[in-house]
Every structure is written in C-alpha cells, then in structure tokens.
Amino acid sequence: MKLRYCLLLSLIASACKNQAPAPEPAAEPPAVNVPAATSAPPAASAAPAASTVPGATVETPIASAQPAAPEVPVPTDLAAPPADAKKTASGLATKVLQPGKGKERPAPMDKVLVNYSGWTKDGKMFDSSIPRHAPSSFGVSQVIPGWTEGLQLMVAGEKRRMWIPAKLAYGDHPMAGAPVGDLVFDVELLEVQKPPKAPPDVKAAPKNATKTKSGLSYRVLQKGTGKDHPAATSRVTVHYSGWTPDGKMFDSSVARGEPATFSLNQVIKGWTEGVQLMVVGEKTRFWIPSELAYGSNPRPGAPSGMLVFDIELLRIQ
C-alpha cells in the first residue's frame, strides 16, 4: 500500500510537468488527470477501486472464496545484471525472458497493460501485480524513467527483466514509502493501447467550422444531450486530446484513461471561451490561435502556436 501511494504521488508529479491543456490562464490542464494508483509504475485506471460503484452493497467474500495468491519466485541475478543483459546509454539494463508476438513497440503517448513484480537488490519484493490477480494499466510517460525507457523496448507478449539504476527509479532519497536505490523489475507487456489519431483537418479549420470574434474556430463532432452551458467560472469534467498543426499529440486524457476536472477560469483563453459553447455529452473540435493558447514563445514544455483540441464535455459541477 505504501508503494502504491508513493507511485500515485510520483506519477502525479511527473504528469504535471507534461500536461498541456488546462489549469492556469496560460498553463497546463488539470493535474487531476494524471493519476496512477495501482502500483509500481501504474496509473489511475489501474486502481482496483475505480470500478467500485458508490452505494452498491458488496458482500465481503470469505477467505476460502478468494483465489490463492500465486508465488512469485525471486530472481537469482538481482545483485547485478548478467553478462547477456543489454545496457542502454542511460544505464538501464534489460534481458528478454520471454519473446513477444507483437510487432509494434509502445510510444511515449501510448497506454499499456502489464503484469510486473519489483525487488530491491537484497531480494525483497516491494510490489507485484501478480498476487493481486489484476494487471496494471497506465501511460508509458507516467511512470519512473526506467520504466518509460524499458517499455519502449518491448512488444506485446514479451516478458523482460529490467535492472533500473536509482537515478532512473525513485533515487537514493525517495519520498516516504518508495523503495531506495537500484531496483529490478520483471515486466510482462500484455497490451499496447494507442492514443487517438490526429484529425485529418488538424492543419487548419475547415470551411464548415464556425469562427468567433476572438479568432477561435470550432466544429461540433457529436451533439450533446444537456441543456445548460457552463459559465466562465464553472468547474467541468472533460476528456480531451491536443495536437499541434503538424499532427503531433502533446497531451491527452483519453490516452491516460482518466478524465480531467478543472475550473474554466484556470485554463487557456481558448478553452475558457470554447467549453462555454458546449453542453454535456457534446464533443467539439477547436482550432485555437496562438494568442488564445500558450503563445508563440511559451514557457518550457508548453506547445507553441496554433493548437487543435478535441474536447468532450462529461459533467458541469
């Protein structure tokens, strides 16, 4: 439990650096979208509690009804990677334990489903999805650097052992509850989930798009069922994906598998104006000019120039 908690914090911290659409008037989107609550490197969608229906009556299963937790053998080469392990320039060492049948490797914006176990060099297991009988799902870029790099070397069906140096894990002085120093993980990549593809009209708004006085262009992709529009100060929950005009995705709550919640007065101007035009259930594409986004010379990490967002309004609070 301690590790899951610290992973959640570390994922949220790293996610905040990479987000782009919403929070402050010229800054990122909601930090709340970047979750990760399952374990070692997982993310929010992996958290078992996510599927629990509030208010539902759930009987506590008796111990005999629960499947026995499988034993996970401790690797004999934890102390150091063997001679046949391959080492990358960053210091990450890996060895394929079971070849995969997939053809595509995960990209930074992809989401993956994995089984894994993690040990410290002295043989102590600190986390594993296997005894939980629940694989973990999370974004490739939402985990510790060693995982982000290692996952991109794999294909679906592959099982790989990773010797991750402290600098690519939680460090030598991590937050409370996180494992210290060099770590070893056995990771089995079960599935790779690709993020939404760039729209065909990402380069410029089409003729059938509506343009406002501010320069914001939009086109409704899916009509909503709601009747009320959010106000400039409303708090909303949305799913969104954002691209630069060259088709590069820079952020997506859809890829993370977790909707974003934030106040409309805490986001870029194009979002504040655009989302107020929507009703619940609606999905709209916005072409946001630079002056309504992050500008032509934004802060480090933020996308520059005109941006395109697909936004689905899920809830108005």
Account of the protein in words:
With 317 residues, this protein is of the alpha+beta class. It has 2 domains: 135 residues, Chitinase A, domain 3 (Roll), CATH 3.10.50; 107 residues, Chitinase A, domain 3 (Roll), CATH 3.10.50. The protein contains 4 helices and 14 strands. Strands 1, 2, 3, 4, 5, 6 and 7 form a 7-stranded antiparallel β-sheet that branches. Strands 8, 9, 10, 11, 12, 13 and 14 form a 7-stranded antiparallel β-sheet that branches. β8 and β9 form a beta hairpin. The relative contact order is 0.17.
How many independent structural domains?
Answer: 2
Structural class: alpha+beta
Oligomer: single chain
Helix segment tally: 4
What share of residues is helical? 10-25%
Task: Using the CA coordinates, give the radius of gyration.
Answer: 22 Å
The CATH architecture classification of the largest domain is Roll
Which residue ranges are poorly predicted, with pLDDT under 50 across at least 5 consecutive positions?
A: 1-64
Can you count the beta strands? 14
Give helix and strand order, one letter per element, not per position. Answer: HEEEEEHEEEEEEHEHEE
Mean pLDDT: 83
Q: Main sheet?
A: 7 strands, antiparallel
Shape: elongated
Percent in strands: 25-35%
